[in-house]
Amino acid sequence: MRVLGVDPGLTRCGLGVVEGGLGTPLRLVEVGVVRTPIDQEPALRLLTLQTEIDDWLERLRPDAVAVERVFAKANIKGIMGTAQASAVPMLAAARRGLPLAMHTPSEVKAAVTGNGRADKNQVTAMVTRILRLQVAPKPADAADAIALAICHLWRGAAQDRIAQAVAMQRAAR
């Protein structure tokens, strides 16, 4: 299975594609960060994100998309840009009929480090170790996007198997 992880942001949007399956090691396919100028109109910045995400989906053909769930914090202006940016991959997945998962930052941290309160350095270190990378992904937005993809491969696959088992059990009744 191949997953596109997206760490949404209007200034920096991390993208990472990870591939793997049950009992097989995970492999980094591609990682990057889309940057948009802070002085550009928000609509144009969102268009840049859309163009880049569409390109990644077309070139890398993921089976699912995992996006960080936006959570409330004190900086309302910052959260608005993040919320707007998170809609772009959600819509892109919907247009292509791809499964979409939303994971909270604490879910992602717990999945890759075992600690839902891990800091960015711990997440980056574990992403580097899990994928057996020679160099840690930089900046943190890139590592976070990869962590989202890893989280979905590990947690999402388990959740999908549980849902399938429940559906099969209901169908057998």
**Overall spatial form:** globular
Radius of gyration: 16 Å
What summary fits the major beta sheet? 5 strands, mixed
Low-pLDDT sequence parts: none
Overall helicity: 40-55%
Provide the spatial order of strands within the biggest beta sheet: 3-2-1-4-5
N to C succession of SSEs? EEEHEHEHHH
Average pLDDT taken over every residue: 92
SS content category: alpha/beta
Beta percentage is: 15-25%
| N→C terminal distance | 31 Å
Number of strands: 5
Supply the number of helical segments: 5
Question: Could you describe the 3D structure shown?
Answer:
This protein is of the alpha/beta class. Helix content is 54%, strand content 18%. The chain contains five helices and five strands, in the order βββαβαβααα. It has helices spanning 42-60, 76-96, 105-113, 120-130, 140-172; strands at 2-7, 12-19, 27-35, 64-68, 100-103. The chain has a five-stranded mixed β-sheet, with helices on both faces. Helix 1 runs parallel beside helix 2 (76-96). The relative contact order is 0.20.
